[in-house]
Amino acid sequence: MSNNGRDYEEFVASLQQALFESEKWTELHNITIERNKKITDNCGIDREFDLYWEYELAGITYKTIIECKDYASKVTIEKIDALLGKLRDIPDIKPIFATKTGYQSGAKTKAERNKVELLIVREENDTDWNAEDGTPLIKYVNVNIHIMSEATITFFRPYIDAEWAKANTNIDLDKLKIEVRSDLAFVEDIDRSDKYTLKELQERFTKENEDDFGEHHVTYKYKDAYLCFDGIKLKIMAIELKYVIPKPIISPVRIDFSKELVGVVEYLGRKSKTMIFKDHVVKNWGQKI
């Protein structure tokens, strides 16, 4: 975040809006935060405040302002005095002061005695990932993603029952050229009541040998089975196969939850903090009960 007062005002407003939307009270969901709000005091003088909002509950209007100061050093008592001076002739407003760097002791005392709530509103740092009781939030997760590839049949040879083919077909086995697609050619094993395409056979190899990487050679023998492809059905005595189980591709991935943390609001009076993530809010983190 650049050292720009307007940018900081927008940052504080965005976090406050997220807090409203996380509340259970539906009255708070529709609050509009106004920036550079001018309010006329009892003396007829316009006073400008960085952020302002109001809402009505049970017939009572609640008004709040936040002064946002993007200082490189701690806020002094003079800044609290200046805020109190602006509010002196404007009744019934809840004052809040927000900065990134903290407050001098005199500023804290003056604010506490005049019911000014002090906030530190900032981006995340390493201290945000542990509560005072030592309970950690998970900042990083390192994951090794294993990408498994299916077994691949590299060699396929059927042993055809020549006598059956001669008696039941007009196919000249000497001229027959078997070229099959793994998803269309299938074996129908009558004896074992089983039927599978070559692609399904590859899937079986993958499940049965998922940790046995490399090349495998297997021969299946049949009593009553048929190879079906391209409208042809041939009785087979066996099939000889070679297939490869490839090693998995391991891809390390780091999930950085800190990138999901939009900002942090520390409530000095309550000694707690609220962490605003992109999709949720963690309240009272680190609070001493």
How would you describe what is shown here?
The chain has 289 residues and is α+β, with helices and mostly antiparallel strands. It has 2 domains: 5-122, Trna Endonuclease, Chain: A, domain 1, CATH 3.40.1350.10; 149-247, no CATH class. It has helices at 5-22, 26-29, 77-87, 105-113, 162-168, 198-208; strands spanning 34-40, 46-57, 60-69, 94-99, 117-122, 140-147, 152-160, 186-189, 194-197, 214-229, 232-245, 249-256, 261-267, 272-277, 281-285. The strands form 3 sheets. Strands 1-2-3-4-5-13-14-15 form an 8-stranded mixed sheet, sandwiched between helices. The model has no long low-confidence stretch (mean pLDDT 88).
Question: How is the topology of this model organized?
Answer:
Elements: H1 5-22, H2 26-29, E1 34-40, E2 46-57, E3 60-69, H3 77-87, E4 94-99, H4 105-113, E5 117-122, E6 140-147, E7 152-160, H5 162-168, E8 186-189, E9 194-197, H6 198-208, E10 214-229, E11 232-245, E12 249-256, E13 261-267, E14 272-277, E15 281-285
Parallel strand pairs: 3-4, 4-5
Antiparallel strand pairs: 1-2, 2-3, 5-13, 6-12, 7-11, 8-9, 8-10, 10-11, 13-14, 14-15
Helix pairs in contact: 3-4
